[in-house]
Structures are given as structure tokens and as C-alpha cells.
Design brief:
2 helices, JmjC_dom, Jelly Rolls, 152 residues, four-stranded antiparallel beta sheet, Cupin_8, tRNA binding, two-stranded antiparallel sheet, alpha+beta
Amino acid sequence: MDNFLIQVTGKKRVVLFSPRDAQYLYLSGTKSEVLNIDDPDLAKYPLFSKARRYECSLNAGDVLFIPALWFHNVISEEFGVGVNVFWKHLPSECYDKTDTYGNKDLTAASRAAQILDRALKTLAELPEEYRDFYARRMVLHIQDRAYSKNFE
């Protein structure tokens, strides 16, 4: 969900990454495997250096808009109080009704991920060379049908 991070007292440093850079963030579920974003292990995570970071400091009274889907890392630089305000802007049926805090994928995306997992399990039945070929063909199909041309 979209989110306002309101810094009431204290100071925080916030680093944001665009959803367009997801391929460089080494995602495991919804989180990045790169734990130290200021000094990443580039031998282990070489693509991470391609991710464009947007960084800011929040002081008492500052408000930061964090768009839905943007990856973010927040570091408290001193003791403080921050408040997050999340809101849903898509039709209510798009959201998981059990998701109080907006941490779950949209329901259609969750269903698609389950279908993809089943497809990958089916591909695993093939010999490696064939599995590789059909998986690459599926990736091209997804890119052609699902990637937006508006962000290139």
C-alpha cells in the first residue's frame, strides 16, 4: 500500500529502491538478501550495484511518501518516534482481506505466483536442457505479455 512515514521526533535515514530495480535486489520473498545496503558483498551480490538508490534523512516534523511496491530500508540515527499511515487506493477486492498492514501481495499477484510455482514444478519433470529451453520461452512470454512498455 502507499504509505506516509511521519517522523514525529528523532532522526531516520531512508533508502528507497524502485520496483523496476527488483531484479538487482536479490529478493527472497518480499525481502532482499542484501542486508548491508551501505557496504554490500558485491562478490555475492554483483547486480546490487546496478540498483539505483534514493536516499533522504527525516527529522522531526518531516513526512515521506513511500509509494506502493517501493523497497525501503529505514535506519534510526537517534531515538525517535515515527508513524506510518497506509491506505488502499485500488478496489477492495484487489487486497487480501486478512492483510491488516498491507504486507501481502495483491490477491491476483498471489494467485499468479501459485500458478507459476505449479508450472515450474511441472517443468522440473523435464530433462535439464528441455526445462531450460521452455523456462526461457516462458520468461519471454511473460515479458511480452506482462511487462509495461510505459516504463522502458
